[in-house]
Each structure stands twice: as structure tokens, then as C-alpha cells.
Amino acid sequence: MINSGFLDGLETEAAIDKAILFVIEHQLGKAKTNYRLRDAVFSRQRYWGEPVPVYFAEGLPHPLPETDLPLSLPNIDEYKPTSEGEPPLKRAQNWQWQGQYPFETTTMPGWAGSSWYFLRYADPHNQESFADRKATDYWGQVDLYIGGTEHAVGHLLYARSGPSFSMTGASLALMSPSKS
Questions:
Q1: Tell me: the pLDDT tens digits for 10-52?
Q2: Were both Cys, which of 15, 63, 165, 177 would link to 7 (CB 3.0–4.6 Å)?
Q3: Domain positions in the chain
Q4: Those residues with Cβ within 8 angstroms of residue 73's Cβ, 6 or more apart along the chain or in another chain
């Protein structure tokens, strides 16, 4: 780093660590990890896929309470966009939370579920936690994951990042479904 005061002469990683420490020591903020997904392809304007468990009140999004999960897809008359170009879920009649707050009408792509299913598969009947450490240790990882280039990259990207952000602090030994 140059022209950066107390960070001059440091390599990038060391400068970042020192800047974070400075911010914490001067009570200007705290260290935080942000995960970024490929947002452009995460929401899909189709019916098939996991519904996003979000409703809107006064134009602001709110997550559904856990007690109201899972959110099931409603029946609709046609599985195509509306004439205004809205997603098929806009066709749903009275699909609202508590009868007054509309749900998000885009869905998650199919691989959103792929980001966690390998963990739940190891312990599908667990009512206490997502997956027990003993079960995930027993089932472990597959030796080799094979798929087309885009499929493999997308699937493994989300399969690895899903546990990273949703399981932070959980007692999981593996963070990827595959050794390769």
C-alpha cells in the first residue's frame, strides 16, 4: 500500500487486517463477512422452484416467521408469465400472508435446493436441527462429482457457499458435498 497512512508498505491482506483492527479499536465498526451470490441468476421468473419465503408490507420485504414455513406454491391457471411480463406466480389468486400481504413472486432456481440437500439427505428425519454432526460425518462426501461444466460449477459453487453462510458456527465437519 502507498499513500495510505498507517497502512503504507503493507501487502493487501495485512492492510485489510490492520484496517479492521483500527476500526474496531476506535469503535467505528466491527468485522463482518459478507457472502455474495450470483444475484443475476438467483431469482427466476418461473413457477417451478422453491418459493422465496418473503412477503411485502408497505412496499418493504419481510421474511416469513419460521412457524409459517415451509411456504408452498399455490395453484395457478397457467404456468407462463402474465401479459404484463410478470412471473407466473402473479397469476395466483389471493396468494398473501395473513390474507393481506403479497408474497414474493419470483422463485429460487432449482440449484438453490442443491446448496443444502446433501446435508439434509444425511439426516432427513431430524426434527431438532438441520443435520446431526454424527450423520454428516458418517455419510461424508462423495469422491467425485460429475456434471457438465456450467452445471458442475454452479452446483458446487452453491453447494459450498450454502453451508458457509447458513451453517456458520454449526457443528459441521464438511463444507462441500464433494472431495473434488
A1: 999 999 999 999 999 999 999 987 755 544 456 666 667 778 8
A2: 15
A3: 1-32, 52-102, 110-166
A4: 47, 51, 89, 107
- Cβ pair 50, 108 in contact under 8 A: yes
Which residues fall within 8 angstroms of residue 122, CB to CB, at 6 or more apart? 131, 135, 136, 138, 139
Which tens digits make up the pLDDT trace of 91-150?
Answer: 999 999 999 999 999 887 766 666 677 777 888 998 887 778 888 888 877 777 676 776
Which residue, 152, 176, 180, is CA-closest to 164?
176
Cell numbers that stand for 2 in this block: 502507498
Question: How distant is the alpha carbon of residue 92 from its chain centre?
Answer: 25
H helix or E strand, kind and range, residue 137:
helix 133-139
Amino acid at 24: I
Give the Cα-Cα-Cα angle 14, 16, 19 (nearest 5 degrees). Answer: 110
Residues 6 or more apart whose Cβ sits within 8 Å of residue 90: 82, 84, 105
